Inverse folding.
């Protein structure tokens, strides 16, 4: 059997350093695969109330792209990445709207890797 880890980036109060520490732990665990989700908001939740009140800010696309590239650079080159963002059914989804366009998110991530001349595992300490 294969082991796939699920992680969510951009939780309330989570710093960039916290997310990178998660990436290092994912790399250390040497799972077969990882699914990476951005924090997104759905209706009728405490998070929806916090976002509406300005208490919680969801990551914008550019920040998410930079963060996920930093994260992926730490992962072993052999680890399969099965997901790079998440969303919810449209009837429940509040935001961020950018994650609904998965092809655009993928292109932005690829462009950031190209801009950096980088790749998955570039900063892996395995």
């Amino acid at each position: 059997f294969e082991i796939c880890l699920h992680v969510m980036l951009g939780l309330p109060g989570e710093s960039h350093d916290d997310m990178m520490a998660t990436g290092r732990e994912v790399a250390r665990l040497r799972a077969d695969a990882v699914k990476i989700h951005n924090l997104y908001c759905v209706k009728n939740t405490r998070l929806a109330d916090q976002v509406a009140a300005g208490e919680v800010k969801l990551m914008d696309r550019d920040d998410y792209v930079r963060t996920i590239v930093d994260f992926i650079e730490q992962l072993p080159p052999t680890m399969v990445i099965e997901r790079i963002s998440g969303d919810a059914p449209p009837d429940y989804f509040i935001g961020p709207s950018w994650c609904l366009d998965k092809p655009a998110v993928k292109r932005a991530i690829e462009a950031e890797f190209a801009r950096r001349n980088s790749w998955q595992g570039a900063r892996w300490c395995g």
About this structure: Residues 4-116 form one domain. The longest strand covers residues 4-9.
